[in-house]
Structure formats: structure tokens, C-alpha cells
Amino acid sequence: MKIIGLSDPEVEVSLRAAGIGMSVPEARTIAGVLGRDPTLTELFCYDAMWSEHCSYKSSRSTLREFLPTDGPNVVMGPVEDSGIVAIDDKWCVVISHESHNHPSQVLPNEGAATGIGGIVRDVNCMGATVVATADPLRFGNPYGPKANKVRWVAEGVVDGIWQYGNALGVPNMGGDIVFNDSFDDNCLVNVVSIGIVRRDQIIRSRAPPLAGEKGYDIILIGKPTDSSGLGGVTFASEALREEDEETNRGAVQIPDPFLKNVLFKANDDLFKLVREAGVEIGFKDLGGGGFTCATSEMGSAGGFGMEINLDDMHKAADFPAEVLSIAETQERFLIISPPELREKILKIYNEDWDLPNVYEGARASVVGKINTGDRFRVSYKGEMACDVPIKHLTEGIRYNRLELPRTIKVSEPDFAEPADYNDVLLKILRSPNIASREHVYRYYDTEVMGNTVIRPGEADAGLIAPVRGEMFGVALAVDSNPFYGRLSPYWGGATAAAEAMRNVAAIGAVPSTLTDCLNYGNPEKPEAFWEFREGVKGLAESCKNLYLKGFEDQQQPVPIVSGNVSFYNESPDGSVDPSPVVACVGIMKDISKAITMDLKKAGDKLFLIGPRFDELGGSEYYQTILGVTGANVPIVRFDLERNMIYAVIDAIDEGILAAAHDISNGGLAASLCEMALVRPARFGFDVDLAGEGVQGSEGGMRTDKILFSESSGFVLEAKAGSEARLIELLKKYDLEPMQIGTVTGKRRIVISRSGESVADLDLDEARNAWMSGLVEAMR
Amino acid sequence: MKIAVMQFPGTNCEFETLVAVKAVDMEGEIFRWNRSAGELSDFDGFVIPGGFSYQDRIRAGVIASKEPVMSALKEEADKGKPILGICNGFQILVESGLLPGRSISCDKESEKGSNMGVGSGSNKASSNVDMALAQNVMISKGKIVRRGYYCDWVNLRHESPSKRCSGSFAIERGALLKIPIAHGEGNLVTTTPGLIKKLNDDQQVIFRYCDKNGRIINEFPFNVNGSTESIAAICNEQGNVLGMMPHPERAFFAWQLPAFDPRKQRADEAGPGRRVFESMKRYIEVNA
Fold first, then answer.
1. Element (H, E) at A109
2. Across chain A, what does the average pLDDT equal?
3. Which residues numbered 573-592 in A keep a CB inside 8 Å of some CB on B?
């Protein structure tokens, strides 16, 4: 394409006409480095590799500045497709976390399904067995002006998730769902996947040492390359406009869990082959940026160049070179391996697992060779389609974006205390953001693989026992509250990290690592970039101050080993609420000690830890009952938070708790009710709010604020006879033990204050409200 | 004693099923669909595990039922060897005629639509669909409250006397088992008059969905998928072939049970699903 010698407007016109999203200065830089006009294929390759999605051009410097990514348990930080942390000397957890927001907004079913499809490949390509997924979802207001579209998106996304995940055969350990207006035109579909790998069997996504000298093969496996998902990364790096919807649909990939299921099993045989042969290979999935991204990144990471011939690629039809180079056809992997393994590898895929007969045109093909040069060269039909310096292509560019605080007018409401708390409680329990998630997770196969110990809904985190014969378990929880993010992007980030850790602690697991998927608006707008920076700062502060348990003496942060940045979540009507979605992996040494949130026995005593504060900004109470957002969001009091998390983990390890649940959305009242309402729903409770700390840090707090403040904390059910020990343990951590009531066999929810009745609800009536809220919102 | 755990493209429960087979001290291995079918005669029993064989194309289980290995399995079944089909395995057994579901008939009415036009394989072209596992339809108080895929723990009541069927050989009549289901098509339906009565009379109904006290309540959530007479599992006339929608391999250890089951706390104990695999083993021992 001609660039040299043309004016900026002329270059702009030809770039857009060709469907290339890069800026004119970017195109000129490329032409300058090449010393000639780039080919069309070269421009497409650069466009993909230099997109925000692949290159993190706006975000990288901020991430480097703030996030802690190393620690004593970190085996691999955020350098490849997934991060890895150690469970013990032998086993590791592999985790990856991404967004598939734009595709899910335009084609919900396919978008969400390929989200799962992509994230499980990221984990599998490290040599790991994929053992769980989770989906943090954000949808628009199901009762707002765009209710129909919102419900269509929500239903399609849930269908896509279960249709893909269930067929693949990986259990869904949960996730969360939040509805709010800011997601009316931009849903968020984040996907998390975890895997298990032995430390000595990790496979890297790079050309191994000597790959260039020995001329290693480049082998493409899986589905034949087609034109699906063309320009997916460029599409993900722009704001959504309704008039582009038709074009955008073409950028969504096509999922195939069936082929993936077979590919995973064939990959296991590949891993076995290289272990037995004692050689190192490079292995990577094809995701954003397609073939070009996978090949060039692997070569570049090993310090090599490569020579590729697209004539040798298996393809669905005779597409032009630029399509074959960057299409995001699903269900593909890339292997870089020594030539002596070639025939054995091809046999695994083409004969043993019979890919050509499982899916038309699927197979393994040798498409090129690694060399000691520094060029990324692609030929097709006898012509050179691409010949560029490989590092220049993969290292991308950096932008220093401007930041400017977003000013919003907020105030705390002035209002009277409600007269009828029963009614308020029922409204809160029925709210789409509080109600039971059962309607959705019954679509998810939570049991496949037979590893599941704690399943969605039973506790604040899911738990699996992924290795038979080992006692350890891996816990997973996700969190982010967009309402807090809107009022304070900083505290939105900090509370997301703290709550995710609190969630895994509530079952007794020790928070081991976090991942972050940072969903924001257009970073070219200074306000959006400021929100992003604030969120990352908040996140980092929580990690740095809630030390890795076992290394608290060294003030070791909880590391963030993987993540993703998703900008441009906006439409002409505005951007999404700042949403730094955090996933936390927890390690449980002995799964038999894990506890759930359901009340266990009449007569057991209930304890609250975490004093209530007047900080109801963004709370469920303000929004559902008063219709306002308020101003003062809950903050993270780092020493208090750390002490609570540690105390709960220790208490569960000692076996003195029967149930635990963290306090978040809906406050103390919702947490208590959920413990009673979740299955088996056999017990009620009788609680009095008279205690000193219960009444707020300064005492004399209003009853509604005590009940619905979302200040961090836990509700604990002590095992009979263990109360004294629990109190002792809490005091050791400088926590004020507040015994607030008793589990009862009465099937009633009873709340009073200094003996005076506040609420008294029939358990079944409350359960009915709690069970119907989400069904109604998604109908 | 050697068990083959069958694997089709799309099967996704073979590994945990093999764990269950081995945990009751049987030998076992995974048998890939494109292995020589003749090798199946070396095995003493077979499990067709759950999953989405061939992507549930046409209807769950249809394509797998046409594989050459299924004809070989039919020959092994005729020798009296036990076959356990779980979830998609149940669907495959019904589609391939190893369980009531396809019969050879001259009834004109039922010939309509009988040849689905798929492959050739073990079934004669004139076989009829007598019974199928249709899409779940959850009905409560006369209203459809939900359809399609559903995953949850259910209670099962063992309906036949012990020794009637290989997969429940060592389970007494009336025994209750808590086991999870996870499927979109488990709703057993038939248009053939008298088929259900025949299954009942011949004690071929092995498990029904029930409440926690063993009562059969023919509506959601107890009858979890709308299945006729709450039927969750049936066997063939001889009793050696069992098909069941619930997954016993996922309820093999007590720690796999849901949080509200008190047995969960006894982590080392056996789960209810273990009894199905123990039964299969006992059946082989007795019939050896």
C-alpha cells in the first residue's frame, strides 16, 4: 500500500478503505522502519499486533508502575498467556483472566462461548489440565429503557457459557452477575480459567533454546483457518457504535467446544510425547491477532526469526494472505518443535485423534521453520506477503495517555428511617443484584470432572480438589462492584481485591494470587484514563497491604500473576462504570476443613466481625430503597481487613466454625439472610444489634445503616462449645468479637435492637423473594 | 476383571469414570472410538460415560450409536457382559437399541420418520423410535417453569430387587441414592402404547427420581426433567445393560456431596454412587 509520498489525509483514506484501524503516524513509522511502502499483509499484521488488545500500548506503563507481580509462590508472572503459582513443591495452579465484552454485546451467545474457548486455551497451552472456569458478568438494567436488549444479551451470554463449557467438560465454579444502567450498551463478559500442572511439566509459549540453530518446525494444529473473527482485536480496541453492528458481527469468532474437547485430549498426548522424549517445545494458543500473533510472539520471545509459507497452512478456503494471517479462527494451537518429533506429532493429531474426520479440514500442518535471523517472513503463492523485523512487530508501541480526574456531583441523602423493615428486607432480597444466582448456575455443569467440593451458591468461593490422592484444594472467587467504581475508581479497585480475598478466606482457603481484568472506557479520553489509573492504584494498594499469608513478616504483597486490560467499553451514550474485575485463587491444604455459608445447627452462636461504618455510597440499600447512589463508598481499612481475613482462615483451620459468610452487597442484613436462605434453608436466626461495635464505629448508628452498610466484615457461626476459643482467636488479631445472636430452628428471620423488634420474617416468604429476583430479571 | 470405558469424540466424563472403575478394584482403560472394535471382546464389562458425543448432532447419542464399536458392543452384550451407560451413554444405548428405544416393527404408523437417514451401522433401516430422551421440561403445578439444561443433585429410589440388573446388582430395593444430574435431554418419553407398563412389569425400571424421603412426586423439582413416571434409569430385559441419566461417578466420594448433606463432613467415606460400580463388579464376579 502506498504511504510514502502521500499526504496524511490520503493515507488516512486508504487505511480506512482497507479496513485498517491504525493511525497515520503509526503507518508512517512502519514504512520508515521497512524503508519502503508496506504490503497490505504487513499493515494488517502490524494493525493487529499494535492494537490496544495485543500491545497494551496505553496501559503497560501504569501496570508496571503499580502492580506487584512477584512473590515467593510465583512460578511465572504475567509474561505469557497465563500466570502460574505454586501449591506445594510439586503442583502449580495456572490462571488466566480475560474479557470478551465487545463480541458478547453484538453476538451474545457466540461472544461468550468463544470467551470461554479462548481462556481455556490460554491455560491448556502451559501444559496444564484445565480444571475450572468462572464468569464475572455485567449487564444493563433489566428494568430500564433498554430492558429488551439487556435481557437478550444476558440470556444469550448465559447460554453461550453453558453450551460451550458443559460440552467441553470443564466445571463452572461460579462468577458473579451485576446489573446496572452503565452496561446498557456495553455488557462485560469476563472469563477466568484455572488449570493444574506439575512444576516440572510446564510448557512455555516461546521458541525453545537452539530452535533457530536447529531449524525447529512451526506446526499449526486444529480447525482450518477461515475468515472468522477477522479484525477481532481492532474491533475490541474501539468504542461500540450501533451503526457498525453488522460489520462488528463479522469480527466475532465461531465456537466449537466439540473440536476443542478432542484437541485437549490430543494435546495431552503431545505433552506426554515431549516428556518422554525429554525435549522442550514451544506451545501457544491462537487467540487475539490470530496466526501472526502466535507465531511472531513465540519467535520473538526466543530471540529468533522465522520463515512461514501460507501455502502449507490448512485452510477452509482460498483466502488472501492478510486474512490467513490475522483471522481469529477458534480452536487452533501452534507448536514449535524439533524436526525429529515431526512425524510423531503429526500422527497424534492426524491419525490417533483423527482430526480430519472429527471436523472437516481440521489437522496438524507444518507451516514453517524457525531460524537464527531477526525477520518475520511470510510467503504465499510465490510472493513475499510479509518481511518485517520480528521485534519491531511484537514489541509494539507505547503511548503516554493524559489523565484528568472525572468530576461528578455526589451527595449523601437525607432521609427518614423506614417504618417497615420486613418490607425493606424483602425488597433487598428480591433485587436482581442480591437475589440467589441459582437460576443461572443450574445451567452450568458444576460437577463434571468429579473434583467439585464447594459449588456455586454454597459459599463465597468455589472449591475443587483437582488431583486425586492429594488433600489440597483450589478455591476461586471473583469480585468487582461497579457502583463503588463509579463513585470512587480508587476504592472500587481496592475493595474488589479485598473482597475477592475475603471470599476465598470465608471457606478457609489462603489467598494465593489475584488476576485482574480491567474494564474501562476509551483511554484516549483523559477522564477514562484517570479512572483506569485510580483503579490500578487501589488494586495494588490492597495487594501490598493485605500480605500473602505465611509471608506477612516480610510484608509480602499478594501477587497479581495474570490479567487483561479492556478499554473502549463505551458507546456514544457513555462508558461503563469503572470495573476492575478481580479473581482470587486460594489454596486449601486440606479440603475436609473447608466450610460453607449455610447455617448448620439450631443453638449455635452467631458472631459479627468488622464494625459497621456510615459508608453506604453505592449500597444496595441506597439504590433499591432510596433510588440514589450516595457519596461515601466503603473503604478498605487494610490492617483491619488483613486481621479479619487471617482470623477467619485460622478459625476454619482450627475447626471451630460451622459456617462463614462475608459481608458485601446488601450489608449485614443480606449476609445473615443468605446464610439462612441457602439450601438446606432449615434454620432461622435471632439477632440483636445492641452490641457496641455493631452500632457503628462511633456508636448510636441508625438501625438501617447498621443493617445495610456494606463495610467489610464477616458473619460467623461458631460450633457449639467453641465460642470461647473463637473470642480468644479474634482478640489475638485485635478484632472485637461481637456475638449478635443465635441460629434457631424456628424458620423465622428475627432482628431486634436492644430487645425491640426490627424485623420478623417468615423464612419461606423471604426465600421466595430471594429465589425469584434473578428469574424475574432475566425472564 | 477388565472394564473398557468408551470414548467418542465429545465424551467428557471418561477420566472420572475410570477413576471410579479402578477405585472398586477393577482394571480399566479408556477405549478410543477408532480402535479396532474386535479388541472389545477382551473386556469383561463396559461403561459408556457422559459427554456430548459428536456434539449431540441430530439428537444426543444418535451418531455415536452408528459407530462400528457399537455393533461390537451389542455382540458383547449378547454374551451377558454388563454395560453401564451414564447420561450421554444412556442416550447412546437407547439410540443403538441396546436398551428399549428402537424395535423392529411392521407397524406402519411408527415407520414414519424411523429412518433418520444417518449412517448405516447396527440398526436395520426399518427400526422404529419407541422411546427417546427428549429435552427436559420442568413442570410444577401444571405449569412449565423451565426447560433445557439442568445441573443439580437429585434423590434416586432403587425400584427393582437386587440382582435384577448389573449396575444395581448389590443394591436393595427401596434404597435411596443421592447423585447429581447434568443434562439437557433426560426426559424419557415414549409414544409406543404399553412400553412403560412392560418396563414396569418386567422390573426394567431401575431408578426413579424421588424426594429425600423416597416419595415419588411426579413434578419439578423432584421429577427434575419431566421424565415419564419420574424414570431415571432402565435396563434391558436380560438386566445386563443399564442406562441412567444421573452420574454415579460424580458421587463416588463423600466429599463430593453437596454442602447440606451431613455425610460430606466424613471425607474418607464412600459416596452413594460407589454402589453402582460395586454392583457391576459383583455382577461380573457372580456371572464369571
1. helix A108-124
2. 95
3. 591-592
Residue B216: give the domain boundaries.
2-103+130-287
CA–CA distance, A589 with A470 (Å, rounded to integer):
9
The helix/strand/coil state of B251 is: helix
Count CA atoms within 13 Å of residue A732 on its CB side: 12
C-alpha cell at A75: 512460578
Interface of A with B in 438-467 (CB under 8 A): 441-455, 458-459, 465
- Which residue from A minimizes the CA distance to B271? A450
Query: Considering only CB atoms, which residues of chain B are within 8 Å of chain A?
Result: 9-13, 15-16, 19-20, 32, 34, 50-52, 54-56, 148-152, 180, 182, 247, 249-250, 252, 255-256, 258-260, 265, 267
Separation between Cα atoms, residue B128 and residue B107, nearest integer Å: 9
Distance (Å, whole) CA A14 – CA A4? 12
Chain B's closest residue to A779, CA to CA, is: B146
Q: Is residue B111 part of a domain?
A: no
Q: Calculate the alpha carbon distances from A462 to A88, A592, A675, B8 in Å.
A: 20, 14, 16, 30
- Please give the grid coordinates belonging to residue A165: 463449557
Residues paired with residue A687 on neighbouring β-strands, in sequence order: A741, A751
The amino acid present at A19, given as its one-letter code, is G
**Domain count for chain A:** 2
Q: A33 is in which domain, residue-wise? A: 8-49
Q: In what order do the strands lie in the sheet with A282-285?
A: A282-285, A332-337, A217-222, A363-371, A305-309, A375-380, A383-389
Residue A567 lies inside a defined structural domain of this protein:
no
Pairs of residues, one from chain A and one from chain B, whose beta carbons lie less than 8 Å apart: 93
| CATH number of domain containing B63 | 3.40.50.880
Q: Is there a contact between A684 and A744 (Cβ–Cβ < 8 Å)?
A: yes
What confidence tens digit (pLDDT) does each residue in A569-628 have? Answer: 999 989 999 999 999 999 999 999 999 999 999 999 999 999 999 999 999 999 999 999
Q: Which portions of chain B are predicted below pLDDT 70?
A: 103-127
| Burial annotation B163-178 (CB, 10 A radius, 16+ → b, else e) | ebbbbbbbbeeebebb
Residue B148, Ramachandran bin (φ over 0: left; ψ between -120 and 50: alpha; else beta)? left
Q: Does the CA dihedral B251-B256-B258-B261 come out positive or negative?
A: positive
* Residue A708 within any structural domain of the chain: yes
Alpha helix (H) residue ranges in A547-692: 620-621, 638-654, 667-677
Does some domain include residue A579? Answer: no
Mean pLDDT confidence for A481-485: 97
What DSSP letter does each residue of A133-198 carry, written as one string?
EEEEEEE--TTSTTHHHHHHHHHHHHHHHHHHHHHHT--EEEEEEEE-GGGSS--EEEEEEEEEEE
Place of cell 522424549: A277
Q: B57: nearest CA in chain A?
A: A258
Is residue A674 domain-resident? yes
Chain A residues in contact with B11 by the CB 8 A cut-off are 261
Strands A363-371 and A305-309 turn out to be antiparallel
Active site residue A97: no
Interface ipTM: 0.93
Binning chain B into helix, strand and coil, the percentages to the nearest 5 are 30, 25, 45
Residue B17: which of B65, B43, B50, B54 has the closest Cα? B50
Whole-angstrom CA distances from A479 to A482, A484, A575, A581, A619 are 10, 12, 20, 6, 15
pLDDT in tens, B26-48: 999 999 999 999 999 999 999 99
Q: Is residue B122 part of a domain?
A: no
What lies within 8 Å, CB to CB, of A743 at 6+ separation is A599, A600, A601, A602, A603, A604, A605, A606, A683, A684, A685, A717
**Exposed/middle/buried for A155, CB within 10 Å: 0-12, 13-18, 19+?**
middle
Looking at the structure of chain B, the number of domains it has is 1
Q: Which residue type is seen at A581?
A: V
The angle at the Cα of A148, spanning A145 to A151, to the nearest 5 degrees, equals 115
